[in-house]
Amino acid sequence: MDSLLVQYPYLEELLKGILGLSYTHVIMWLIGGLLIFLAVKYDYEPALLLPIGFGAILANIPHSSAVSTEPGAEGFLITLYNAGIANELFPVLIFIAIGAMCDFAPLIRRPSVMLFAAAAQFGIFATAIGATFLGFSFPHASSIGIIGAADGPTTIYVASRYAVELLGPLSVAAYCYMSLVPVIQPPVIKAVTTQNERKIRMGFENEEPVSDTTKFLFPIMIVIVAGVVSPLSVALIGALMFGNVLKESGVVDNLSNCAQNELSNLVTLVLGITIGGTMTAERFLNFQVLLIMALGAVAFVFDTVGGVLFAKILNMFSAKKINPMIGACGISAFPMSGRVIAKMALKEDPTNFIIQHAIGVNVAGQVASVVAGGLVLAMIPALEKM
Fold it and tell me: Which of 74, 28, 37, 82 minimizes the C-alpha distance to 55?
């Protein structure tokens, strides 16, 4: 073959894709295909896993023009990465869309649900500490811990600052575990609760509706308070609450609808395929990535357990019992986690409707995960100096 290439040098250019192919590329095609399969066959976060899987295939074709870094001829995935990931634009835009979809009325009625959401962030910090003992640097360990919040945009935001080289596996882990909430949370919850606890009835509470003025002022106040507590969270919490202000103002329905639909769909599409474009065989096929995926699962489980155990502790001191399953809704997978927990309660007792309480905690988890991400960003520089 070498002599043939010497004799006909133009063949090297024609065959460079075939000549550059290795088994690692094929493995990454299979991984990309698996993500697409999970999205199409089992409906696991299809809006993200499908473009991520396809992007991974594009990035692992030898000499792919989609990920070319040649000056003046950069691939479109590289251009998207520089335009939206390297400068944190895509995660921020996603949060505007999420904010426009959120209804914070349950959180306003019961501010106490923030305690469950805070407890459900335990896995972030526990996993981050554990990861440092396994040899990860503080920035990398903290980025891995954020996976536990089941919050893809926050994971990307933190990773794009402190773990760029791990962005692919971190993002895939975060979104995979988000999509696997119905698979992971039920057995974990059953392992730490009794059947009688899962049957605790909370019931529907007929409460006064939250006024439009309160719902409008709430996101503004949250930005101020959260920003003072954790200034580095302002970009994310500010984007989240700005989207909610659009929704609650009642005067820019066209912008609110755009954020909920066109903006959400467009950014999700380009974000997914760009993340897939970072999943090259050189970055993805190593023991460190397997460890990240395992630690991400640990963080996710610990977050779920943290919220449930906190509810169980409250029950020890309260006459009015709480169904501890709602504590698991404190993660950021909104509204999936709330729905999963409500279905679990109905499976235990077909007349036990706790959806109102579960969604309230789930909304609080959306806010808590962003604040936790800001705290992690603030802690990383301080820990590095120690």
Answer: 28
Best CA proximity match to 366, nearest among 233, 237, 218? 237
**pLDDT of the residue at 43:** 82
> How many residues can be counted in the chain?
386
CA terminus-to-terminus distance, the chain: 56
Low-confidence residues of the chain: pLDDT under 70: 1-17, 19, 203-207, 381-386
Q: Give the ranges where 44-121 is alpha helix by DSSP (H).
A: 46-59, 76-80, 89-101, 105-109, 113-119
Tell me whether the omega of the peptide bond preceding residue 335 falls within 30 degrees of 0, making it cis: yes
Q: What b/e string do you get for 216-230 counting C-beta neighbours within 10 Å, with b at 16 or more?
A: eebbeebbeebbeeb
Torsions phi, psi for 194 (to 5 deg): -95, 165
Rounded to whole angstroms, the Cα distance separating 314 from 124 reads: 22
Percent helix, strand, coil in the chain, to 5, is 80, 0, 20
The secondary structure element, H or E, covering residue 251 is none
The per-residue pLDDT for 24 is 93
Task: Spell out the residues 6+ positions from residue 109 whose beta carbon is closer than 8 angstroms to its own.
Answer: 207, 210, 360
* Euclidean distance between CA atoms 106 and 365, whole angstroms: 12
Are the C-beta atoms of residues 265 and 101 closer than 8 Å to each other?
Answer: no
Distance between CA 352 and CA 347 in Å, rounded? Answer: 9
- Could you tell me the pTM of the whole model? 0.83
The two tokens of residue 189 are 């919850």
The number of CA neighbours under 13 Å toward the Cβ of 255 is 13
Q: Which of 108, 111, 100, 366 is nearest to 248 (CA)?
A: 100
d(CA 319, CA 348): 22
